[in-house]
Amino acid sequence: MTDHAFPEDFVWGVATSCYQIEGAAQEDGRGESIWDRFAATPGKVIDGSSGAVACDHYHRYVEDVALMKSLNVPAYRFSIAWPRVVPAGRGAVNQKGLDFYSRLVDTLLEAGIKPFATLYHWDLPQVLEDEGGWSKRETAKAFVDYAEAVVRHLGDRVTDWITHNEPWCASMLGYEMGVHAPGVVDKARAIVASHHLLLSHGWAMPVIREHCPGARAGITLNLQPMEPASDSAADHDAWRHSDGHFNRWFLDPVHGRGYPEDMVRDYIAGGFLPAEGMTMVQPGDLEAIAAPADFLGVNYYNRMIIRSEKIPEAQNDPVIRSLAPKEEWTEMGWEVYPNGLYQTLMRVYLHYGPRKMYVTENGCSYSTGPDADGQVPDARRVAYFRDHLRAAHRAIADGAPLAGYFAWSLMDNYEWERGYGQRFGIVHVDYETQARTPKASAEFLAKVFADNAVPVDETPA
Ligand code: FCB
């Protein structure tokens, strides 16, 4: 049997984000972020932990880049901490913050690893939140100034830029459900925040291009395929609404279609928007958000089955996240559903027609640790990657312009409100000693990266 070969210039990589790995929260002039504040608030993070130390990557980046090199990693997606670069949110640039990313980028380039930088992976400077955060238009302006400072400094070496990671999470988890920083529960504010996040993406795009000639820039959305739980009209309507809230609310404006009208109607009916609708949208905003992008980043983890009625098994959540038996869930409680990656890529390709797509995150949480011989036999993660990569390969064969794939994550790290208990890494981290141990999945991916192909035979578990 021949392995599934990927296109010749396919970009393979691994991903991380700054708050989840860097630590050094108070070093070299870094300002407070909304995640520092949120994590320090009792009851917000499951194990009471924070990213204050995390994987200590700020001090160990040389070792971490060498580790990536040893695993044949061709590209690395990381994020830049706004509060390191502009500690007060706007105004003075902290040279030491920029220097860190400059050293990281140089080390990557020396190792032959292509940097993909994300400008916002959720760590807003707390001072801006104190002024209203993403529900204020001024925050979008401040983001553009911060982005400009970063790109001016790194744009000679970094050519691949992602403005935002998952604006759905930044707005809805942060301001509607309050389970992420800043922990606000106010749906009306969340909708306004989503617009300002998208607006800041659109405003930043030309600024990135101006300061980085030859830049390739885009945004990363977390997309989830959804299905109605039954044929009933009520389940279908719940499905339409959930898909609108989660997927279309972001996909549509980024692709020049404005905000979905059915959702604007729903939000007005729910009292989350005034009767006049999206009053925060000013002339030119929608055009800005639809700035031509070189790619769309897609983060894929699982699917959702949507029903209209609350059911006890789903803890009164009208959404069922999974149909599969519990044994097949990852430790996040997320169903393993590789076909959902195929469905997502095909949907975006067929309905939105982006120039290119990258899977900017895909991965799974299993807590397998080192055995007596010091090996980490994470067979389920190997199977997860193998099956999702086959799904990605199938989407390419069916025409989807998928140009790259980044595994989440390089190493175990701070999983937000879930703390350190959830391990997504292909490299195990011992948080006591900071020892890094590549897992079986790292060896598996190292071979995929080297072969530019995914095995079709049954990979031994
Ligand atoms: C995504 C986030 C990433 C990580 C994974 C598991 O939503 O972008 O930081 O937490 O989920």
TrEMBL record:
Primary enzyme class: hydrolase
GO cellular component: cytosol
EC number: 3.2.1.21
Any one GO molecular function term: beta-glucosidase activity
Catalytic activity, as annotated: Hydrolysis of terminal, non-reducing beta-D-glucosyl residues with release of beta-D-glucose
Active site: E166 (proton donor), E361 (nucleophile)
Annotated InterPro entries: GH, Glyco_hydro_1, Glyco_hydro_1_beta-glucosidase
Positions bound to substrate: Q20, H121, N165, Y301, W408, E415, W416
UniProt GO BP: cellulose catabolic process
SUPFAM superfamilies per record: (Trans)glycosidases
One matching Pfam family: Glyco_hydro_1
UniProt keyword annotations, A-Z: Carbohydrate metabolism, Cellulose degradation, Glycosidase, Hydrolase, Polysaccharide degradation
Homology family: Belongs to the glycosyl hydrolase 1 family.
Protein name: Beta-glucosidase
Annotated organism of origin: Plesiocystis pacifica SIR-1
